[in-house]
Structures are given as C-alpha cells and as structure tokens.
Amino acid sequence: MINLGNLITEKRNQATMNLDELSISEALQLMNQEDQKVAKIVEQKLSTIEPVVKATIEAFNQGGRLIYLGAGTSGRLGVLDAAECVPTFGVSSDMVIGLIAGGEQAMTVAVEGAEDSQELGRQDLIDLQLSNKDMVIGIAASGRTPYVIGALTYAQEVGASTASLSCNGNAAISKHAKYPIEIEVGPEFLTGSTRLKSGTAQKLVLNMISTLSMIGIGKVYKNLMVDVKATNEKLVERSKRIIMEATECTYEAATQAFEASGKNVKLSIVMILTGCSKEEAQEKLVQGKGFIKNTL
C-alpha cells in the first residue's frame, strides 16, 4: 500500500476548505493568490537549478542530449518543453527528448500501471541508447514515481548526468540524482491535483533549464532567438524582424539577407554585421563556436 499521507502535495489546503461554496469570482481570486506563491518558492531554489543548467550545457557541448522523463502531468510537461525546443532554437528533435511513462498514447490517455514500473523507465533509456554524454532529468511532483526512479538509477549506472525535479521535500527521486531540485509549493488549490501549483512550478523550472542551456551554446544573440526555424508564415516574418532588430537594417535588407542565407537567421545577421558572404559567415560561426558575439 502506498502511503501518500506524508506528501505535502497530497495534503488539504486550509485556505480552500470551502472551495465548492465560493462564487466564481472568489474562487478565481483565491486560485490566483495560490499561483502567485509558486514563482516566489521557485526563486528560493535557484541555487539548486543553476548546476543543472551548467551540467546540461556541458552535455550539449560534448555532443550529448537532454532527456526529460516522467509520468502523467510531469511527463507531459517534459514532452512539451522538448517539443518546443525544436522550432524555438532550431535544434534536431533528438537533441532534447521528452519521455512519458506509457509512451505517446499517455500524452492524452492514462496508461494503467506504466508509472509504477521501474523496469519501464530503465528500458525507455536503453531504447534511446543512453550514453555518459547525456543529461537525464527525472520529473515527479510526488517525488516517488517508480518509473522515474528506475530511469535515474540506470542513468547513473551508465554514467550520464542526472537531475530530479519534485514538489516535495526529501523526495525519493532526489536520492537517485546528482542534482536534485525540490520545489515545495505546498498543498494544492484542489487537493492532490498536482497539475496545478506543482505543474506550474515544474513548467517554470523546465523553461529555465532549456532556455538558459540554449543560451549557453550560442542559440541566442542578446535576447533574440537567432536559431529559430521559419516553418510557417508567422515565423518567416518573425525571422526577418529578428534580423532587423539585431542589425538595425531595413525590412528589405533583412529579406534579402534571409533569402541569400538560405533562410538562416543567424547567418543573415553575421552577413549583415560583418559585410561578408554566406560562406564566410558560416566559417566565422564555426570559429566562434556558434556564438554571433564571437564573430564580431
């Protein structure tokens, strides 16, 4: 029998004991008040997030991958963050990977028993041919999910970097990760519904890890997404605006460079700022290890 009594994420929130008796306006205000606490709690844990970002950058620099894994909401948030790295930072779909217990179908339909299997977590990483160059981050609001524990245990055996993200103190998964992050957001607005404050906290932390790690490998110039993939009309226009912002050029000049570079924002910016050809810009970026600032 699983004892959830000691998990703060499962306790009743004293501020919402009469939740079903509140007006919509009162409930909205109360829910917003609870949500506002989350960012402040994350702020208190920044020192535990920093080494995870550094380890992720190191993994990328040695050709490794960032692999998120979890069950239920935690797994879905990892999959979401991984998927959004592709268009935002122009990375391949196998550089940042999200695994969810039960596979893709678990994104929309709960797969019974999947999260309770340590072996399944282990096998999912074996199937990915996990190496010691990779970074594995196990996510579980409860901090006790067997799927995550099994995966982290295997990752440590392989020699990969490991981190955990939970919303309870002294979490079981923390003992299986080199870099544990525990964001204790307290009892949920709706008892046990960890898709709420816990999910918000996890999303905030994953945003930090992926975004700052991408900055750390040259995917950002100043505060611009210079490796964005222009996969639709909106992103084509965004790409041109980024070129204009970075170089203070006209829309026409940005369009010309964008086309000449093969629709590559980063190359376009280097071409304009240094007055060089596409080929020369490519060489400058190689020498600058992908950082625009190093080419200037």
Automatic annotation (TrEMBL):
It holds the Pfam family GKRP_SIS_N. GO terms for molecular function: carbohydrate derivative binding; carbon-oxygen lyase activity; ether hydrolase activity. SUPFAM superfamilies: SIS domain (SSF53697). Its EC number is 4.2.1.126. Keywords: Carbohydrate metabolism, Lyase. It is an enzyme of class 4 (lyase). It comes from the Bacteria. Signal peptide: none annotated. GO terms for biological process: amino sugar catabolic process; N-acetylmuramic acid catabolic process; peptidoglycan turnover. Homodimer. Belongs to the GCKR-like family. MurNAc-6-P etherase subfamily. Specifically catalyzes the cleavage of the D-lactyl ether substituent of MurNAc 6-phosphate, producing GlcNAc 6-phosphate and D-lactate. A lyase-type mechanism (elimination/hydration) is suggested for the cleavage of the lactyl ether bond of MurNAc 6-phosphate, with the formation of an alpha,beta-unsaturated aldehyde intermediate with (E)-stereochemistry, followed by the syn addition of water to give product. This is N-acetylmuramic acid 6-phosphate etherase. The gene is murQ2.
